[in-house]
Write a structure and sequence with these properties.
Elements (H helix, E strand, L loop, with lengths): L3 E3 L7 H8 L6 E4 L1 E2 L2 E2 L5 H14 L2 E5 L10 H21 L4 E4 L22 H19 L3 E4 L10 H7 L4 E5 L1 H8 L7 H4 L3 E6 L1 E3 L4 E3 L8 H10 L6 E3 L8 H22 L5
Parallel strand pairs: 1-2, 1-12, 2-5, 6-7, 7-8, 8-9, 9-12
Antiparallel strand pairs: 3-4, 10-11
Helix pairs in contact: 8-9
Length: 279
């Protein structure tokens, strides 16, 4: 398993993130926030520095998350993002030879990022159908650009669960599987969503939590039983990127090592348990 990490979970200074991550065996990095802003709507010189460091260290950039559609509520905002953010994100995705972009599922009106997530969406509504229409349009454009949109369930967004993401998945749309986001929203381990999401999973984020709070934790602590999620991923034959997204903590080498070790312990234990016993 070639485990990675969302780079700014260590530091927005990519050089610092790599300085801490590489000695811990982390050689895959997702790019989200840099010192000058959210990639790629930031200083181009900083993006080129990311590229230079990655080439020099022989590490892999596995994803870019430009924040598309996270706070989008209106058709005007959607058009603006598709005309300003999407083209630049697509350009850098191609430049870095990425299969697609991590995106979000359109903002719930009035929802705020805070320690208390908004209420789960309980029914199909006009706003969900509008989100599906916008996604279809964005996916068609991405597909024409030979890219895939990886939708990340997010509590403040209309697409707030892996099951909801599976409902809009198809040509040009896959899922960035993030049980931690869904557990924060619902207060429960979302393992029951896995089968619906499984055919569409193309990227995975790992974090755990304890409620109330949330108190963010490594994979082996908290309300999510990652043994079950890892077993399901292995049964499904998933071999794509998996990235730590601890949300914890302080970005220190000790913290990142703790998260890495916890992940590897659980992943390997599940793998060993599934192997046939030799005669």
């Amino acid at each position: 398993m070639k485990l990675g990490i969302v780079a700014d979970e260590i530091s927005r200074d990519f050089a610092e993130a790599v300085r801490i991550g590489v000695p811990l065996g982390l050689r895959r990095y997702e790019i989200r926030n840099l010192k000058s802003g959210r990639a790629p709507m930031c200083d181009e010189a900083e993006l080129r520095e990311v590229e230079r460091i990655a080439a020099g260290e022989g590490i892999e950039i596995t994803a870019v998350s430009p924040g598309l559609f996270k706070f989008t509520e209106t058709a005007e905002a959607f058009r603006k993002e598709m005309s300003e953010v999407y083209p630049r994100a697509a350009e850098w995705a191609h430049r870095w030879k990425l299969p697609g972009l991590i995106v979000f599922g359109f903002h719930k009106s009035g929802a705020k990022e805070s320690t208390s997530p908004p209420e789960p969406r309980t029914s199909v509504s006009g706003v969900l159908l509008q989100a599906a229409d916008w996604f279809a349009e964005a996916a068609a454009r991405a597909d024409a650009d030979s890219l895939t949109l990886l939708v990340e369930p997010e509590p403040i967004c209309i697409i707030d669960s892996a099951r909801a993401a599976a409902g809009i998945a198809g040509p040009g749309v896959r899922i960035n599987y993030d049980p931690g986001n869904v557990a924060w929203l619902t207060g429960a381990d979302p393992i029951d969503e896995f089968d619906a999401a499984a055919p569409w999973i193309a990227n995975v984020h790992i974090k755990n939590l304890r409620l109330p709070g949330p108190e963010w934790l490594p994979a082996g602590e908290g309300i999510i039983d990652y043994r079950r999620h890892f077993a399901a991923l292995q049964r499904a034959g998933y071999t794509g990127p998996i990235s730590l997204e601890p949300h914890i903590m302080d970005g220190s080498a000790e913290t990142i090592r703790r998260c890495r070790d916890d992940f590897m312990r659980l992943w390997e234990a599940v793998g060993q348990a599934s192997r046939p016993v030799p005669f």
